[in-house]
Amino acid sequence: MNQLRVLWRASPVWSAVALALTVTEAAVRTLLMVGIGQFVGSLPASASARTWRWFLVVAVLLLAGPILQSSLAAVTARCTTAYLVHVFDLVAEVGVHPRGIGHLDTPDSASRIRAVVDATRDWSFVTGAGAIWLIIGPRLAGLGAIAVLLPWRWWVPLAVAASFLLVSRVFMSWISLAFDKLLETTGDARRRASYLRSLLTRTESAKEVRLFGLTDWLSDVYRSTWYEAMTELWRERRSGLGPVLLACSVMALTVGGAFALIGLDVTAGTVSLAGAVTMAQAILRLQNFGVLGDAGTALARSTSTLRALANVRQELGLPAIGPAAAQAESSRSTHAAAEVRLDGVSFGYPSRATQALSNLTLQIPAGQSIAIVGVNGAGKSTLIKLLCGLYEPDQGTVRVDGADPAVDEAARRRVAVIFQDFVRYHLPLRDNVVLGTATDDVLQQSLTDAGGLALLERHGWDTVLSTEYDGGTDLSGGQWQRVALARALAAVAGGAGVLVLDEPTAALDVRAEAALFERFLEVTRGVTTILVSHRLSSVRHADRIVVLASGGEGIVEDGSHDELMRLDGRYAEMFGLQARRFAQ
Amino acid sequence: MARVLATAVRVSPWQSLLCLFETLGKVLAALSPLFIGVFAAGALKQDLRQMLCAAAALVGSTAANTALQAVGVNARVRQMELVGHTFDAQIAELTARIPTLDHLENASYLDKLQILRDNENALGGALNTLINTINTLAYAVSVLLVAVTADWRLLILIALGAARLLTARWSMRWEKAAEEAAAAPGRLTRHLIDLTVSPAAGAETRVFGHQSELRRRIRLAVVGWRRPTVRSTDRNSALAGANSVLFFATAVVLLGWMTRDAMAGTVSVQSLVVAVGVLQGLQSVSSSFVSAVGSLTKVGRNCARFLWLRDYADEVAAVHTGRRQPPDRLRDGIRIERLSFRYGDSARDSLTDISLDLPAGSVVALVGENGAGKSTLVKLLAGLYRPTGGRVLVDGVDLADLDLIGWRSRMSGAFQDHARFELTAQRSVGAGDLAVLDDPERVLRALHDAAAEDVVNALPAGLGTRLGTTWPGGVDLSGGQWQRLAIARGMMRQSPLLMVLDEPTAALDAATEHSLFERYAEARRPGRVTLLVTHRFSTVAAADLVVVLDQGRVIEVGPHAELLANQGHYANLYELQGRGYR
Ligand SMILES: Nc1ncnc2c1ncn2[C@@H]1O[C@H](COP(=O)(O)OP(=O)(O)O)[C@@H](O)[C@H]1O
Ligand SMILES: Nc1ncnc2c1ncn2[C@@H]1O[C@H](COP(=O)(O)OP(=O)(O)O)[C@@H](O)[C@H]1O
Ligand SMILES: [Mg+2]
Ligand SMILES: [Mg+2]
């Protein structure tokens, strides 16, 4: 079973202990059945010594049961922890392992990955992790019962067990139809319903929901979307119930036949009282092959989640249930500025009909500071993502120091970047600047260079930057931007040769922006810098400015500030718009 | 709890009845030791008829049990989903209906709210637990009856169970403590997992080479999240083990006693078989009472959280009693009097003693460094927080006396950290004025006002395109494009009294910004106040009034020219930015 293999991978030791306990418990139960039969059977004979001997056996077995169960509960909790650590790691790996990010923003695969993540948050997932032992134990005890019955008529226990198995199969396939369907057919509709609900409850959308009075409307759409998805599902589930009931009748006949046989054998004298009591218990114990309640349901659901996860992983070329071999962590050896070349690069997002960039050529010599300007949607951020090797270009080549960042980890690590929507980790300030190990010097220096020293003085390194945690704090947009800047500067200190800033000062105030650019040249000496900004007052200081036009026109202007002003083209026009107020 | 049941019955009475099928199955299962006893007695007497009757009963208790279970489970799961949804919808509505934001930002409130907010089906699960509890209890009662028919001495065992009920209090305390201790690391786990599958975070993770560090953090977070549970399980299972050992030790003594009587012939073999058979069941009786109490407490806790949310909503509603409707148009404007504000458990004020006049018909620019309190002021004007001191007067009427929903319906604008509504483009923008949500013309007009037509023109299915890449056929937008849609949303309402635009152009290019501001200047209407937060002085200069905030205080107010002439803070900042263009 899939889940067992994952458990085994997650923690061989705890799984083995849990398995040993489960097996022992099943053995105890089987022996108890025999013991009780012998004990009762010895009563009419009034051979008191024998009765007391079996009594003792029953007593010991009765006392052993609960001790085993308690130990199993404690072991299961640990096993489940190891399992969850492992599975969440597998999920995380799905996100972070592939070299590019195409799988995360192509609707098809992104929605399947999202569905898996959501399924791991369902109650049944954590319950299902522990449920396996609640399933295996009884099944093993069922095997014990077969063993007890075999010497009598070998085919009877097999037939009865088979009929229980049949019921269980039909029942489980009904359940998994009902729940796999939940994940697949109605998955999108249900997810949409959840999304609508999250708009109502999440902090991110809270202000707009209140300002525009969206509560009633969103609630209504949420309700109707949910009902639409579920009504269909309920119908399917109900219609799957027929075969289950049919299987139950087959099982009833088999079990009835088995009891009748025992009765006949007793009257014929071939089976003793002890045998009859033992066998009656054993036949009932064969129920353990049947349906096993909520534990079974939870297990079925978590198994199907695991299967979906394994599928997603295999599509991405990852091993289904184990982590991929660790990639060689490449440390950046050189500290020199890097050279960047894009040759005839074309790229379009799969979900878009038009290309974001077409036939773009740009060479940036090592150490140059270049600014890219252009209207929203011109493809500036896309260009940067290509430069980081996050997508592979449809045509053309991207090279950082002669190597392809989409293939060569070392080349990618030569780039340090602040994206427009940089990450706000719910972690301490320290980790938000450098996630991983860094010396205090580097941390301090980077934050100082980014103009965030006041932040440090106010909060200290160890304050979590989210109010969702005790003692945590929130930062304003501008404060966050400084943290992000510090993050990039720390990467430069760590050996990156290109510093890319995608609209770094959008949320900075005037003084902070001025302060930043005053220090910028000094801080970035020795690296190639690429700056994307709409603040032309900052852009003008770059060695070189390129204007990227939208609609695949590519680079339409290229030169220094003075050259472009003389050219009197688009750049000059944009600059004029912003400067007009200040021209006195 | 009664509420959960009542809801269950209300949403679907028949299904609720079907759920009881499962209970019936459980009762039949509990009776099987009795049938085995009868079967054994038949075997002893060589009575085939008695044995066959007992066998028939046993078949009933297995086959019928399974069939009833299937029908019951189907009903129960459906019921659980339905009830869960009913509560989920109520929770979402309650959360969204609370006019202020404290409950969504403050850690101490979030701890309570989170389980309800994030676990869909938290209360549907409660119903499930409730039905399971009913089932186990029905089973337990049947077992007790079987035991009593076998031998009165078995009742002593039941008395032992009482001891167990006493210790149950500890278990519950442990479990509750564990649940609370696990909340924060659980939240962190979710957050980090979300980062691994988000494209934006994915990009950064890769470039900075955070892959393995992020995974390490997730592992740590999961361990931290599970640790309290493991610890409470340890304690609970030790306690349960001790209880069971005590139980079975007593049971063994009683069995011995019965055996002696059986040998003496005062106890029948049938009774002894039933007694032995019912032991396991009896043992689970006390534990099922315990787990029933346990699950009911858990359910109770979730219900209590729900009630807390309701009470909190009522409390907030009670504090804000204003019912007056805002005027049709502003005569005088908005006056801010000695306004102070401090966030939840923050150590210092974010706004201190602010007094301001925002005259009707004016465009007011709010400038100041990051963290000066600009966004806070904007949110206070929208009534998203209650001032800690002072008040806001709308044409002389205290904001606290206004009907907040009414007031907001006469406001519009865009916030600094705007939401990204992953709906169709039409609705994402149209949500700004629900009355014309699906009217493409109005949305196109708003897009025009926000200089955002080209965002939609570039979409594969125009206004009908779904935004957000995790949706089938969905499309992602760049940060600036999302911002323009947010502005367009703010342009949907036709005649707001107050328009707030909090750094609306931070991510926009020069040309778009320029054309936007030309439109803002046109937006100057009698009877309306436009409040603009921006760092771009080229925009500020066009405002009628400039307000300079610094560390939560107003330090300068006046028209652009006047402030420049004053050579103060504002002139200083202006000079700083202007230098870049000369
Ligand atoms: N993940 C994505 N999926 C589909 N289209 C995208 C995605 N990201 C950006 N785009 C589109 O590609 C074009 C270029 O976007 P972008 O590079 O972000 O522009 P800029 O940074 O210049 O504002 C835009 O039309 C944008 O909507
Ligand atoms: N939700 C919050 N909880 C606690 N403090 C906050 C919160 N939001 C903002 N602050 C603090 O309040 C002050 C003012 O913030 P804000 O109004 O966002 O500034 P601005 O918009 O002028 O940049 C800052 O010091 C900020 O850290
Ligand atoms: Mg961009
Ligand atoms: Mg702000």
Automatic annotation (TrEMBL), chain A:
Subcellular location per UniProt equals: Cell membrane
Q: Which UniProt keywords are listed?
A: ATP-binding, Membrane, Nucleotide-binding, Transmembrane, Transmembrane helix
The answer on whether this UniProt entry bears the keyword Iron reads: no
Main localization, broad class: membrane
Entry's SMART domains?
A: AAA
**Superkingdom as given in the UniProt entry:** Bacteria
**Protein name per the record:** ATP-binding cassette subfamily B protein
Which species? Answer: Kribbella kalugense
TrEMBL record, chain B:
Q: Which spans are transmembrane here?
A: 24-44, 51-72, 137-166, 236-258
Per the record, its GO cellular-component terms are: plasma membrane
Offer an example of a GO molecular function term for this protein.
ATP hydrolysis activity
Q: Which residues form a coiled coil?
A: none
Does the entry feature the keyword Nucleotidyltransferase, yes or no? no
Q: Which Pfam families match?
A: ABC_tran (PF00005)
Matching entries from InterPro entries are given as: AAA+_ATPase, ABC1_TM_sf, ABC_transporter-like_ATP-bd, ABC_transporter-like_CS, P-loop_NTPase, Type_1_exporter
Q: Where is the ABC transporter domain?
A: 334-576
Subcellular location per UniProt equals: Cell membrane
State the UniProt keywords alphabetically. Answer: ATP-binding, Membrane, Nucleotide-binding, Transmembrane, Transmembrane helix
Give the superkingdom in one word. Bacteria
The record ties this protein, via Gene3D superfamilies, to: ABC transporter type 1, transmembrane domain, P-loop containing nucleotide triphosphate hydrolases
- Give the membrane topology: Multi-pass membrane protein
Q: What is its main location?
A: membrane
Looking up PANTHER family in the UniProt record yields: ATP-BINDING CASSETTE SUB-FAMILY B MEMBER 10, MITOCHONDRIAL (PTHR43394:SF1), ATP-DEPENDENT PERMEASE MDL1, MITOCHONDRIAL (PTHR43394)
**Protein's name according to its UniProt entry:** ATP-binding cassette subfamily B protein
Protein source organism: Kribbella kalugense
